[in-house]
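Supplementary material to the annual report.
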Amino acid sequence: MKEIQGVKNPLIKELRKLQQKKYREKEGRYLMEGFHLVEEALRAKAPVELLLVTHKGLAEWGEWLDQQSVTRYLVSDEVMKSLSDLPTPPGIMGILTKTEAGKVDFTGRWLLLDRVQDPGNVGTMVRTADAAGFDGVVLGHGCADLYSTKVLRSTQGSQFHLPVVQRALPEVIEAFRSQKIPVYGTELNEAAKGFQEVAPTANVALVMGNEGQGVASEILALTDQNLYIPIYGQAESLNVGVAAGILMYHFRS
Amino acid sequence: MKEIQGVKNPLIKELRKLQQKKYREKEGRYLMEGFHLVEEALRAKAPVELLLVTHKGLAEWGEWLDQQSVTRYLVSDEVMKSLSDLPTPPGIMGILTKTEAGKVDFTGRWLLLDRVQDPGNVGTMVRTADAAGFDGVVLGHGCADLYSTKVLRSTQGSQFHLPVVQRALPEVIEAFRSQKIPVYGTELNEAAKGFQEVAPTANVALVMGNEGQGVASEILALTDQNLYIPIYGQAESLNVGVAAGILMYHFRS
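Predicted assembly:
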């Protein structure tokens, strides 16, 4: 296995650029931190270009690594630290090629996100959609980038289990409505319909919105119905990831 | 208003220690960052000892500040930065006295947390308990400190709306059981009971556990029944804050 010690190595300098969204988009690849995610990626036969492993990582996962047919480099802790955004850099990192799901079928249960900005919220909702057996997630414009390490960390690998696509929400909503699949927006407004009044269903598109502003009014105007989750106490609102979980499991129950 | 410019000012040095849990416990006070939380604290008549405000904060909230009868200091951006754990320090910070709820009544709906370590998760669950109209939250040993700025940020002020107490869980569980109030643990185990099979109820204690390990087996052994949330897809688990939201709203529905 080739060894890279210095942070100024040309390959490492190239990879470090992938911490920025513009380079991920330009180059069509991204970084993935930590054993759990890398293992999920390989299990899902995702396109892993190469692996970087520290000495410590090699000691821990050497046997597992020997079974993988992926190019790998041994790197110093310093190199790993220069690529990681974690306080304690991981022992292993993957470099993956971005693969957009091809033609997706907008039927079944889908989660649509409108300008959700917090990476942890986006990732958690992808993970919850997976757990709830949803059929896919659409990230509308202005959402946190799926390929940032923070989002990936929160997904816990769920992006390998269901399609997560980037599309303009109005077109997607139209695709559902043209098939008579109900599209529900969410609002913090008691004029909307309490979610408990809507029956679970096998086909549904659920739109969750920005942390501060909710779903944009232009989007709310395109839905069949807008729902709210009652607030019984004095909190002003729910965290959007928690709200999405409550609603997705409602549609399953 | 007195002005403090230097980070070596004795008061500021004293306050900076409150970033550490041991000093918060020793001194019985804590820092609270940002206008929204400080406003909630004053509205709830929480014991705010003093306020620190930057020039920018003064420009923004000067009128509001004039209506508050709390000692305040004008501080430099440098001072605020030295006290804050945010990348962009807030324009206002409060120093509050810790107040433990006195005798609490373990009836109604309560959320019990067993070694939940992520500050964001603890805070989000307090916020969700408030939204769901729960009557209180118990933090068992090993939970993230309620008085850390990260937890406080995620609570969004909900700790002023319902009692949040630190107690040993076995005693609390016994208090509920002695009143015939059902205590439900949570498990990632299909041998447990699916939550949809349990009816909503006005009296309930729900125990959520550590992110990696779940609820400790000693605690699970003390409950009336343990519940699980079905996983319909390929995710290994749900985020604990999302799971708590699904269950708390289930008990309300």
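Chain A touches chain B through 36 residues (CB under 8 Å).
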